[in-house]
Amino acid sequence: MAVLQAKKLKAALEKAKKVGLVEEAVTVAGCQIVLRSLTPDEYEAISEEGKELEELAYLNAFQIGHLARAIIEIDGVDLRDVDFVEVEDEGTSKVIKLEKHAWLRDTILRTWSREAIIASWRKLLEVMVLSEAKAREGITFTIAEETDEEKFRRLLAEMLESTAELPPDLVIRIFDDGGLILKSTKAELEEATEKLSDLGTPEERAPAPAPKASPPPEESSERPLVDAEALMRNRTPLNQGAADVPVPQTVGPVSASRKAEVPEAIRQAAVPAQSLSRAAQIAALEGVALDVLPAAPQASGASEAVELKRTAPIDTKEVTTILDKPPMAGMNPRYTPPRRA
Fold it and tell me: Does a structural domain hold residue 130?
């Protein structure tokens, strides 16, 4: 039975200890701490502490439990080889021992803000990733951990999951930048089909064919010769044509015969206005206008002469009775006087 003494393998054992553990320094709100990746026993202890908690309480205990065991140095104070911390009980004044992670959890981490805990938790996740990468150094895997297809499906699922909180326009623009397009949903296809159906059938939507342009008339190759000089000699200027100019008649003393030709309406209109009523004055003026109105001049070369005929005479007496009638006066038959109280 072979027996091996451990002290002979001390150097080799020291090298084998803490394989894969990684330390990372970080400053949180001005407090410098050092985080270390955890061992399997510590993961089991964290899971045991939160098995009876639910929802938010479990999440807080899960993150704080990891940080309490990952912190190995606070503002220069080394806690790497410390397992217990002695504290004095305020009630009994006795000194009691607390596990390092319990003391850090109840004395330090419980006083941190939620934001500080989340920031430290994210840094601890980076430490875990570095620890895994360091553990894989120097190891060659003959069997791939995942095929290219599995890796692509995993990354695609993570990518689609990350678009849940992004605006749809931003997601479409990012896909377009990468040369990708999103598949149309069934609702979008139905909506597009409905819009196309409202526009009519393809034959109705087709533009009407443009009418064929008629060919220009063919110009005769033989054009009549025009003598421009002859046209200019024979033309008649527009401002030199014959025109009928009325000749004014001389007005002399009115003879007895001429006086007899004066219409009666003009002689009545010559009576002073003071001796006539308003209706008579209007009738006299109307008669003068109709009797004195000259006949329209006949245009030169016209085949028919225009003759103005006087309409039926106006009954001046009837007009006089209407215009000279006094205004109507009296009480409105529909008027109802107000009643007195």
Answer: yes
Clarify whether residues 29 and 97 are in a common domain. Answer: yes
- Cα–Cα distance measured from residue 109 to residue 116, given in angstroms and rounded to the nearest whole number: 9
- Both structure tokens of 20: 């894969």
Distance from C-alpha of 247 to C-alpha of 145, rounded to nearest angstrom: 125
Angle CA 335–336–337, to nearest 5 = 115
Contact of 265 with 291, CB cutoff 8 Å: yes
Q: Which domain holds residue 176?
A: 152-190
Closest alpha carbon to 284 in 311, 266, 262: 266
Position 298 in a domain? no
- 135-164 burial, b at 16+ Cβ within 10 Å, e below that, comes to eeeeeeeeeeeeeeeeeeeeeeeeeeeeee
Q: Decide if 320 is inside a domain.
A: no
Amino acid at 48: E
In tens, the pLDDT along 175-209 reads: 888 887 777 667 777 787 887 776 655 565 566 56
pTM: 0.44
Q: Judge whether 103 lies within some domain.
A: yes
pLDDT one-digit tens code per residue, 86-132: 888 777 778 888 899 999 999 999 999 999 999 999 999 999 999 98
